[in-house]
Amino acid sequence: SSFLTVLQRLGSSGINAEYGHIMLSYQWDIQKLVAQVYDCVKAHDINIWMDIHGGVTGNINEAMATGVEGAAIVCCFMSQKYEKSKNCSAELNYANDRSTVIVPCMTQDRTDEGNPYRASGWLGIITAGKLWIDFKGAEQLEKRVEQLLTECCGRLSKAEVPVGKMVTLGKSMTPKKPKQPAKKKRKKQVEESTSGEMIILADEDSITVPLNQPLEPGDQIEAWGFYEYGEKFSFNLIGDSWNEVLLHFDIRPTENVVVMNNKASGHWRHEVRDNRIVRKFERGELEENFHLLIKCEKKEFVFYMNGEKTRKPFPIRAPLKDGRNIVFRDEEDLGRWKKVRIPEARASQDGRGVSDLKRNEEVILEKSLSIGDCLEVWGKVQEDDRYSLNIMRGTKDYLLHMDIRPESRTICLDTTLHEKWPGSYNKHLSDEYSILTSNPQGQFHIKVQFEEEGMELSIDDHTYAGIIPYEFDLTEATHVRCSVSEGSDINPWNKIALPKSTQMLTTYSTYEFDKLSIGDIINVTGYMRKNLGAFSFNIIEDDINWHLHIAVRPASRHVVLNAMLGGGWGQELYYDIPNDLLNCGMFDIFVIIEEKTFKIEMSKDGENENVLLDMRMPFRGDFSKVKYIMFKDFEDNVFTELHMPDGSSYVREI
Fold first, then answer.
1. What letter would DSSP give residue 376?
2. Half-sphere exposure at residue 475, Cβ-oriented, CA atoms within 13 angstroms
3. What letter does residue 577 receive in the DSSP assignment?
């Protein structure tokens, strides 16, 4: 028989737990076969996870998440029914998103129609190019399990998972002398960020740092401190209270481990432990000796310790935007947390640029204000002189005058023509002034939303109850002036974000953009109706290189994904359109640029959390070369809106 080696440190059961288990992912019709595989692997004292062997208790989604999050390898037993199963799809896509090693196992020879079975759709994308193990029959099961474990060993080595002592399995097998391990490549170091707001932390056992605004994918937080033996100390990203904790990063020196978890509605969930992170700390005197960087990605937090990426991320189990505060805790009150850098304030509308403000600067409105627009400004509280935000027409007409008055601790809101004060609105607000000055770092954020009935004002996410009426036509405003009292040398105003211009969307058109990057999102809205012809949305480089072709074919109830490179079309990927999408009326398509794939989501407009069709297509060319969006909807006028990552928008009235 062939020589078979396995990792000695591949999970618990007396073997080092840090590398995780092998998870068996399958559709229940082949449970008997998979249970036999489980027994064969378990007989070799390898840590393996299967739902019917204590893997699933309570909520099935939580249990499956636990199985995936603890897995070093996921073995998926492929069949038509596996491909059609929503639970199997969610499970394997989650493993793929976490970059878990996936080893496919084939269990079906022919389709129900008698054709040779090949994985397609979402399963075909995930398993493309991977060697699959043949489990189409129950005969020679032990040999097939040996092939499976051999493939697992090879895949783990390629994934740079540390390999422990090599042991042989099987009585008749003769061990061979292991090869000398190759020298590890130096891992890419991540530099400290130079952007963001740096805050020096006090020597206290609990320190709360409010965030400037809700977090988004792409944001990062950095913290510096010193590591020394003692009780645990932790970094926590929390909501409005300790009942909601998005990330608990607990450093436990006495246990030599970092524990990660989250809390929902006051209850802790499944924790993730990493005892390799502590090796990256450098113990020393009471001074900075470690740098922790936390990157917020779309589905997980990724950690870098002293510039080196750690092995285990932590899944984002609640919306990032719910994070309100960072709390540092030190149970021995040693002041081991020294400083933190949080993301700078930004515009809350997607893609709008934020500009720096000079003292008494006037910012020209390059486009007319319109209903639905939003204007935002950021600044730092001053306690000496007055300062004001003004939206104006010419030099004397004020659509909005917001005068901040430290001497009386009030905010005066007014509107007027020809500088006749007091104007027609004239409200003096003390509660709103208290909100504006309540941030411990002295920062404030003002947002003005333009609605049909008037202007809505919010300060640091607290909305003023009143509606400020329009003194003149909104479209006639010419500029924004952020001013200070005459003779003052302060500048409380930091940044401003103006509404982005909206352009017309036309049928069968091409729209140019600068570039796309990992994490970018393109959103297009359309109108689905009966008897609709085929239509497509395309991301292209030129007329012979189409990197993503999304063809929606309502008549045949399919969405087809493809790419054309050098004038030649590749293999089509087919997805069935669910009834809820065919009958939804207005719909959204989101194209998300991931590490190696285009992720495409279709949903009912306004219900983007409820994805009705989730698709993926791997990059088949260099996506960095794409330059254009192209629509093909012929006479049907399907598409109504396009929103680009840079904030550009195109709209067509239905």
1. E
2. 2
3. P
Q: Please provide the DSSP assignment of 192-226 as one string.
A: PPS-SEEEEPPSSSEEEEE-SS---TT-EEEEEE-
CA atoms within 13 A on the CB side of 635: 2
Dist. CA 257–CA 310, nearest whole Å: 13
Cis peptide before 178 (omega within 30 of 0): no
Residues whose CB is less than 8 angstroms from the CB of residue 494 and which lie 6 or more positions away in sequence, other chains included: 345, 356, 357, 378, 379, 380
Residue type, 449: Q
Please answer whether residues 77 and 50 qualify as being in contact, where contact means their C-beta atoms are separated by less than 8 angstroms: no
Question: How far is 290 from 300, CA to CA, in rounded Å?
Answer: 22
Q: Alpha-carbon torsion 357, 358, 360, 363, what sign?
A: negative
CA Rg value for the chain:
29
Bridge partners (DSSP) listed for residue 378: 445, 495
In three-state form (DSSP H/G/I as H, E/B as E, the rest C), the secondary structure along 474-507 is: HHHCCEEEEEECCCCCCCCEEEEECCCCEEECCC
Most confident of 299-303, 398-402, 419-423, 522-526: 398-402
Cα–Cα separations (whole angstroms), residue 388 to 29, 153, 354, 375, 414: 69, 66, 19, 15, 11
441 pLDDT band, cuts 50/70/90, is confident
Q: Are 648 and 499 in contact (CB under 8 A)?
A: no
Under a CB-based contact definition with an 8 Å cutoff, are residues 450 and 468 in contact?
A: no
Give the helix/strand (H/E) hosting 127. helix 121-127
Q: Which of 421, 422, 389 is nearest to 405 (CA)?
A: 389
CA dist 508 and 114 (Å) reads 41
444-480 residue pLDDT tens:
999 999 998 999 999 987 889 899 999 999 988 989 9
pLDDT, residue 291, reads 87
- Most trustworthy range by pLDDT among 34-43, 74-83, 521-530, 541-550: 74-83
Residue type, 40: C
| 185 compared with 356, residue with greater pLDDT | 356
| Assigned token pair, 487 | 């003779």
For 78, the token pair is: 């492929």
Residues 260, 247: contact at Cβ < 8 Å? yes
Amino acid at 209: V
Place of tokens 């246990």: 255
Residues 6+ apart with CB under 8 A from 165: 8, 9
How do 101-106 and 71-78 pair as beta strands? parallel
Query: Under a CB-based contact definition with an 8 Å cutoff, are residues 72 and 156 in contact?
Result: yes
Q: Are strands 639-643 and 521-527 parallel, antiparallel or unpaired?
A: antiparallel
Instruction: Determine the distance from the C-alpha atom of residue 237 to the mean position of all C-alpha atoms in its chain, rounded to a whole number.
Output: 16
User: Under a CB-based contact definition with an 8 Å cutoff, are residues 286 and 280 in contact?
Assistant: no
Express each pLDDT in 105-156 by its tens digit: 999 888 888 888 888 888 988 887 677 888 887 677 888 887 787 777 666 6
Please spell the DSSP secondary structure of 24-61, one letter per residue. EE--GGGHHHHHHHHHHHHHTT--EE-IIIII--S-HH
Structure tokens at 339: 């400083």
Q: What is the CA 180 to chain-centroid distance, rounded?
A: 40
Burial state string for 357-373 with b = 16 or more CB within 10 A and e = fewer than 16: beeebebebeeebeeeb
What single letter denotes the amino acid at residue 300? E
